[in-house]
Amino acid sequence: MIKKFLDLEYQPLANKYLKSYKKLSIKKKELYRLTVGFNTKTKLVSLFNKIPDKIMFDSNYPYKSSMSKTMTDSFKKLSIKIKKRFNPKLFLEIGSNDGALIKNFDKNKAICVEPCSNLAKITRGKGYFTYNDYWDLNLSNKIKSKFNTVDAIYSANTLTHINDLNKVFESISNLLTQDGILIIEDPSFLECIKKLSYDQFYNEHIYIFSALSVKKLIHEFDLELFDIEKLDTHGGSLRYFIKRINNNKIKIKNTVSKQISTELKFGLANFLTYKKFGISVKKSKNDLIRIFKKIKDNNKKIIGYGATAKACTILNYCNIGNETIDYFVDTTPDKSNRFIPGKDIKIKRYKKTLLDNVDYIYLGAWNFKNEIFKKEKNFIKRGGRFITHVPKPRII
Length: 396
Ligand code: JHZ
Description:
With 396 residues, the chain is an alpha/beta fold. The protein has twelve helices and 18 strands. 32% of the residues lie in helices and 24% in strands.
């Protein structure tokens, strides 16, 4: 049974940045109700309203993983680890985006899967064999008929974006060698609760995983966890290492039972924990609105930094527009000169001078706080301050 614990009201689709501002309508289905539930049996957190993949991931998908050094560094480190620990003969990445990870692998030993044609074009251009398609059984069979089987499959921030998770794992199991490994990484729901980062919920994040839910989910496909790594990326993620249950060559590390017991101790198996999270979100919203109001009452200038999918949730839920935030800065070319979805706030292509005469910066990309603080030393030095809602609304 799926029990609702969070209602983030009406939201636009994240990552749909319009060239000019327009008020979106519920009737025309430009806005949809963002409600989140907890499945008491499977322990899986999911959205009630699931938007079809083809609407979310099209030929104009603007997000590029390479826009942050934190991510490219993390991918580089991982690629070294995969080669050293598993030395795969053939490596497949589901959701290869602009090739931020795959570029660290040999072109003859790696395959990309990417449904957004604008991104698939990038990895093809770099010489990687790229399937411009959605991950499903058809595609898995297509790859199988060309390459036979694959001994390492990796996917970051992608599987949680696909509606039918059973099909996802069935298609993976279909292609993986008997002693193959699957590595997936996604934001951790435990971290999401701890940081009260309710902006992890937007249409693309159909599911937010916990080790508890992943363990149950993969068991049906005769897969099991053998290692879990904690990562700082995307506000706190977990990297799950998965193998076939009957593969006894790989030992199960105690990181798995440790993570599961931490989650159980924190109450991730109980609906009450989720309900409390939902209540805290409302308080966080009111506190953030109060901070913005106080600053604007003093006639100070606020801009946003990092026009993230996450910021879309916050700004729409807290109803913050250009009366409060003058503009956003972002390094992503396909976001510049466009508007935050559902809001009248323009996004400008990042340049240092856009921070001149600014008093406060709202951290849309709070998950890259360290990288941004390092970059904006001068802003901090001259007394500029940042606003964040994580783990609670405050000025830093
Ligand atoms: P970032 C996207 O979410 C969507 P978002 C998706 N659903 C997902 O799961 C995650 O990514 C992985 C900019 N930036 O990574 C670049 C600067 O301008 O938090 C990006 O637009 N300057 C697939 O959108 C944004 O911030 C900088 O110095 O929430 C960061 O987006 C840095 C570091 C970033 O993901």
